[in-house]
Amino acid sequence: MGTTAPSCEPLGRHNMLIIANGLLAGTAISSSGRLSIGGKSPLTGGIKESNAGGLTATRMARNGLRCIIIEGLSSEKSLKLLLVEPSTACLLPADDLAGLGVYETARILCGRFPQSAITCIGPSGELHLSAAGIATIDKDGTPSRFSGRGGLGAVMGAKNIKAIIIKGKGTITPADPQALAKTTRAINRSINDAPTTKSYKNFGTAAMVEVINELNGLPIRNFSRGKDERASYISGDNLRDSIIKRGGAGRTAHSCMPGCLISCSNIYADQNGSTLVSPLEYETIGLLGSNLDIWNLDDIARLNHLCNDVGVDTIETGAALGVMMEAGFIPFGDFNAAADAIEEISKNTLLGRLIGSGAQTAGKVLGVKNVPTVKGQAMPAYDPRAVKGMGVTYATSAMGADHTAGPSARAQVDHHNSAGQAALSKKMQKLVGIFDSTGLCLFTVGGVAAHKQLLLDAINALHGWNYDLDWLDKLCEQMLQDERDFNELAGITNSHHRLPEAFTERKLPGIDTTFDVSEAELRSVFE
Amino acid sequence: MGTTAPSCEPLGRHNMLIIANGLLAGTAISSSGRLSIGGKSPLTGGIKESNAGGLTATRMARNGLRCIIIEGLSSEKSLKLLLVEPSTACLLPADDLAGLGVYETARILCGRFPQSAITCIGPSGELHLSAAGIATIDKDGTPSRFSGRGGLGAVMGAKNIKAIIIKGKGTITPADPQALAKTTRAINRSINDAPTTKSYKNFGTAAMVEVINELNGLPIRNFSRGKDERASYISGDNLRDSIIKRGGAGRTAHSCMPGCLISCSNIYADQNGSTLVSPLEYETIGLLGSNLDIWNLDDIARLNHLCNDVGVDTIETGAALGVMMEAGFIPFGDFNAAADAIEEISKNTLLGRLIGSGAQTAGKVLGVKNVPTVKGQAMPAYDPRAVKGMGVTYATSAMGADHTAGPSARAQVDHHNSAGQAALSKKMQKLVGIFDSTGLCLFTVGGVAAHKQLLLDAINALHGWNYDLDWLDKLCEQMLQDERDFNELAGITNSHHRLPEAFTERKLPGIDTTFDVSEAELRSVFE
Predict the structure, then answer these.
(1) DSSP string, B23-62
(2) What is the bridge-based pairing of β-strands A377-378 and A80-85?
(3) Is A75 helix (H, G, I), strand (E, B) or coil?
(4) Are strands A134-136 and A145-147 parallel, antiparallel or unpaired?
(5) What Rg, from alpha-carbon coordinates, does chain A have?
(6) What is the pLDDT of residue A2?
(7) CA-to-CA distance for B485 and B526, rounded, in angstroms?
(8) Cβ contact B55:B139 at 8 Å
(9) Using a CB-CB distance cutoff of 8 angstroms, which residues of chain A are in contact with residue B501?
(10) Which residue of B has its CA nearest to A490?
(11) Interior CA angle at A469 toward A467 and A473, to 5°?
């Protein structure tokens, strides 16, 4: 096993695709089955870690697997399945799945490999498009848990792997089962009782629509405005009401992995009760909805489903469509044109390839001045002029614009005021490191952040270790430093740790402010 | 007057467009009227100096102008002319020229401002495309002297300037006219007597076709091969023979500026004696010809004319078309498809915008693995695996892949052997600095390089200075260092000083070698 050379080309033979779980994967701790996929990003040119829920991480752990590394390039052009069994792994032909969407791929593979966990790419990954993500099935077999950011689906596609199948349910053997069981109960109680859990269960992430709109930070018409009274049409309240009223296949409080107490997910059904998409989440509502001047949850759900099926990140794709709308290639607010454009991706047309190449490239080709990207990656649904801590995370994270790298939006601070935002982002970036390392979903933060010793106790009990909190802290600090070091060698330096002039020089209407966190403050994140 | 912030966005208000002449501009020294246009490049994201012949540099000098700097952005959307008169300058409306090709623009402006020098952009610059260059008229009023590289036409377009007109012929007033006259005679004699001058006069730069083909370094089918017996169809010999045989408007030994003794230019006419393009040069023959598997000078001349008219760099456009052909979007060897594709640029279609965005972006969007670019800019017509000193220049120059930044191809060395290539490139990069600073054409190197004291004497005589050769050396070293410092702050670091894996890992058929100059040797250029 080598290491990925930071200078390598993301789609070349020196890049690796690394599929890993967290330190607590496989346990009965709620939400501990986050899957972490990593490699050098074709979108940012830097290091990328993109994580998601679903079954794979837990199944890997229960089969004794911490990590799968895919190296090199195939000399053959044919697609393969990577079949991982408890004590062996092999490549199987998969040319029959070539060009198939993520939903059909998962349906076929669930039939062919029952009781298995499946992680796969759609046509966009096969086409090596920089917005391509990697999808993992949830507990219902729906392949909608996306490691969406950074284009890692293209890396998997470049390696000619259509899907990874983890066969066998397995079991874990904790070093100290009793201690683990006890800690697990305590952690789960804490997660269950957290007020944030209740909100996630009722409204999902869509609860943020009204919150961020109130802050003037909702992306509207390619991040040109941040607030609109139509936000109520796409709010968490409305989402929940629709699901309940329509019945049928629709579900609130849906969980993506067995044993999750938070259940932030949902199944969003149409007026006949047939599933439109699952889940429908805040980032997607922001980027494929308000950002495109589309204010109807059914339309947004349909765009979401199209993106999922072709295998592209909804954030990147929504931002790319926003840029194309600003350029006048597609009219703002035109659902049909947006849907047609997404459908071009799998047809491998010029338009499809451009959208699938992400917002930065679309902006460059179309000559759009206001492009919401940092380090080549599209911003999620928080305008950094209104939610300034997010802006600090976008600017300073090794991941490029990525809310999960250091989310500040739920903090009780004045988000419009630049003071203290660098410190807040820094704190959150470190906290994220802890949760990502354990494999716990970030949404357990509300229940667990104040009880880090419990996490450590669980890690020690599972692995038979005897580490202290200082070790966990240092682990995360080192991880952030390693990511920055990788990027430095990959050519991403201080000059890339900033937001575009569209955000530092163009005031956000309504709150009349730019992103005004100083370069010195941004640098303080690295101290 | 400020300075361009290295971190600025190339098409934003903080970039500057700098139009300058050299230290000997305006004198009667042969070939001393090179125009140097600079700014931050939208193609490379780094500093860019792109120079060309024609009238403007000389006319600026004779009107007492060393430099024109265009700062900021216009608050109006309308196009302007920048009219520079001996003692004043103003902006005039130019909306009537919007969308016009370079040839028609120059024709109209030559009529409106007789006896003036004109530098202008075509539709590609107005459309802010990264492959857009800036054209300057030659002594016949033909706007074919391109500051082509780096997309500076887009910077001019972003500043809403369609053309710069230098009115009035003016005159220079040397500090020591007698000394200047004497030195001028000596330099001109030396240029006139140089063997290289005779070759340039007879065959133009096209003499390189056979030379580089013999070295296996001609770009063929997107740099996948380096040698082909059909090279004779597009050679300097054949070019010259055709021009002479066809007669009419055709000319060999054509000069782009008054008083040039080298006359490397030509007017290439069709079978009826009507001009197809002027000049037809080696880089264009390589990139729009052999690189596209097009082996007919008439076809290449027609593609050249189309590129000139829309205002794009023929190197960047040829490389982009090669990438599109490798992707299968256009068939290799298909002249009509290539011509149609170039015509899409002024139509502002997706295809046109993609070609006009350059080879790197085209390759990214189309998922092409072998893309001949360095720091975002397309390679000129020397495969770096066969002409390794050029490869060192591509890798280490602040300009990205640019033969004029340190041309090694004419040196008497084993171009296939990596030994000594870094030292050769370093020497040439410095030499280029001297010639660019004086404003002398690089093609005077054969006559003047051994007589640098004469150049210095001329500079001192013209300006009333008393500098020594050490000053000139240090000036050029400092210039190279300043360029690297700018790039470092712009985010172009050591990790960008390399060639793509397509050249370091893929052997060139025929000579079975990669670009194998080591990273340590590449770094030695900076020592």
Answers:
(1) TTTTSSSTT---EEEEEE-TTTSSEEEEEE-SSHHHHHHH
(2) unpaired
(3) coil
(4) antiparallel
(5) 21
(6) 54
(7) 11
(8) yes
(9) 8-9, 12-14
(10) B495
(11) 110
Distance from CA of B429 to the nearest CA of A (A): 23
The answer to whether residue B1 scores a pLDDT higher than 50 is no
User: For residue B494, which residues of chain A lie inside 8 Å, CB to CB?
Assistant: 491
Instruction: Quote the tokens at residue B462.
Output: 């013209």
Contacts of residue A490 in chain B, CB cutoff 8 Å? Answer: 495
Q: Provide the angle, in degrees to the nearest 10, between the axes of the packed helices B314-326 and B359-366.
A: 20
Bridge partners (DSSP) of residue A36 are: A20, A51
**CB–CB of A495 and B495 under 8 A?**
no
**CA A256/CA A139 separation, integer angstroms:** 6
CB count within 10 Å of CB B111 equals 9
Instruction: Compute the C-alpha angle B399/B403/B409, nearest 5°.
Output: 145
> What are phi and psi for residue A204, nearest 5 degrees?
65, -165
Q: What is the pLDDT of residue B77?
A: 85
Find the chain A residues whose C-beta atoms sit closer than 8 A to any C-beta of B.
Answer: 6-9, 11-14, 127-130, 329, 350-351, 353-354, 357, 361, 364-367, 369, 489-496, 498, 500-501, 505
Amino acid, single-letter form, for residue A466:
N
Chain A residue numbers touching B350 (CB-CB < 8 A): 329, 350-351, 354, 365
Q: Which of B173, B169, B220 is nearest to B379 (CA)?
A: B220
pLDDT of residue A75: 85
Q: Is the ipTM of this complex over 0.85?
A: yes
Q: Is the peptide bond before B279 cis (omega within 30 degrees of 0)?
A: yes
Half-sphere exposure of A109 (CA within 13 A, CB side): 35
Q: What percent of chain B has pLDDT over 70?
A: 99
Residue type, A517: V
The verdict on a CB contact (< 8 Å) between A353 and B369 is no
Note whether B353 contacts A367, CB cutoff 8 Å.
yes
Three-point CA angle A227, A282, A151, nearest 5°: 115
**Beta-carbon separation of A364 and B493 below 8 A:** no
Contacts of B512 (CB under 8 A, 6+ apart): none
State both tokens at B308: 């000139």
Residues B403 and B390: beta-carbon distance below 8 Å: yes
Residues of B in contact with A368 (CB under 8 A): none
Q: Are A458 and A464 in contact (CB under 8 A)?
A: no
Q: In what order do the strands lie in the sheet with A17-20?
A: A47-52, A35-40, A17-20, A67-70
Omega prior to B174 cis, within 30 of 0: no
Pairing relation of β-strands B134-136 and A373-374?
unpaired
Instruction: State yes or no: pLDDT of A1 exceeds 50.
Output: no
- Distance (Å) from the alpha carbon of A353 to chain B's nearest alpha carbon: 6
Phi-psi region at A51: left, alpha or beta (left = phi > 0; alpha = psi -120 to 50): beta
Give CA–CA dist A523/B354, Å, rounded.
Answer: 36
Which residues from B are below 8 Å from A501, CB to CB?
A: 8-9, 12, 14
CB contact under 8 A, A365 and B369: no
Structure tokens belonging to residue B262: 């080298």
Nearest Cα to A70, choosing from A120, A123, A14? A14
Nearest chain B alpha carbon to A127: B367
Q: What residues in A contact B493, CB-CB < 8 Å?
A: 491, 493
B242 near B285, Cβ under 8 Å? no
Whether A3 shows a pLDDT value over 80: the answer reads no
**How far is residue B46's CA from residue A314's CA, in Å, rounded to a whole number?**
32
CB–CB of B9 and A490 under 8 A?
no
Q: What is the pLDDT of residues A82-139, one digit of tens each?
A: 999 988 999 999 999 999 999 999 999 999 999 999 999 999 999 999 999 999 999 9
Distance CA(A280)–CA(A297), nearest Å, equals 9
